[in-house]
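The methods section describes the discrete structure representation at length, but only in general terms. An entry of this sort, consisting of the sequence and the corresponding backbone structure tokens, reads as follows:
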Amino acid sequence: MANLWQRSIQLFPVPASSLLLYADSAHNADQLYFGRVHVPDPFISFTVGRKKYAVVSALEFGRVKRDSAFDVVLPLEIYAKEAKKRFPSGRMTAAEVIAVIARQFRIKAFVIPEDFPAGIATRITRLGLKLQIADGPIFPQREIKTDAEAAAIREGNRCSTIGILAAEAMLRASKIKNGQLFYRSTPLTSERLKIAIEIACLEAGAISLDTIAAGGDQACDPHERGHGPLRANELIIVDVFPRVNSTGYHGDMTRTFLKGRASDAQRSLVAAVRDAQLAALKIIRAGANGHAAHDAVVHLFASRGYETKHTDKGSVGFFHGTGHGLGLAVHEAPRVSTVDYRLKKGSVVTVEPGLYYPGLGGCRIEDVVQVTSTRPKMLSDCHYNWEIK
């Protein structure tokens, strides 16, 4: 794991200010990127010049000191004790500890990320410290992935593939009775399919949360996870985005399946989505506008007669972005969408067009690529055979 964290962090370029984070690194990607160590509870981290500091309790001290990328690890208990002396009448929070730290290191102002806890920030300012909210990502360099980070994302997608293939195997082994799918003589449900996916990912070394296995009209809501019995001859979207336990990096892949016999309309729908993905992939390279890749998808769908509409009951057609950044977070910079943005060499994005029409079904196909100066480098690998007899 150490090799993954060799690149030095370039700190936020604000003169006379220090970065300040207060979050756990189990869920906060910036904190994990900053310290390169898994800590399940919120803790204080900050910079003084180019040095990175962490303040953690005795529970975490030895491990963080041994395994993290922090230059200095400080014991929380010492600063909490001093904070109680300085602020004896009030409730003790992280803000008071931060005030003590700031006094010791002669810090008058901190730069904080946009998601910094509002309550703690309010208390900090009341204690006389100045806070400046970062204009955009506090670590913009997270967008560009090193070779080691790209390899970690590829591993995440290997786990995604294992989960997707587990779902395919269960669908292939299922029987059709009166239009419904049965697996080992009991109804096959979205919940059962998701359990198989998540177990497969867990055995591969990753945790898959909020897995999507949605069929029929449920698949027409892109973030519907799926529930209840699955039926024959209906499109089933399987979207798996696990987090690798050893690194914290994610995979993110989607395939669409159908158990039974597809209609001509369903085959045309799936073919259009795959062709749209290929059209976007032809455009994605360093310096290309993500908007252009998104437009290629929109134009292909329109040329095939797939109209997008927004109604009081919801939207149909293609109504989400073509892709998003992937790394320590499932959704991070950049976006491949209607936003004008020049893609940078080394960034990693998903490419996931989709079409959604209640009554016909939903289809989404998603892969992950790293942007290069020429054709994008595939970081995911899973077949596109979707009709299961």
User: Anything to note?
Assistant: The chain has a mean pLDDT of 95. The first helix runs from residue 29 to 35.
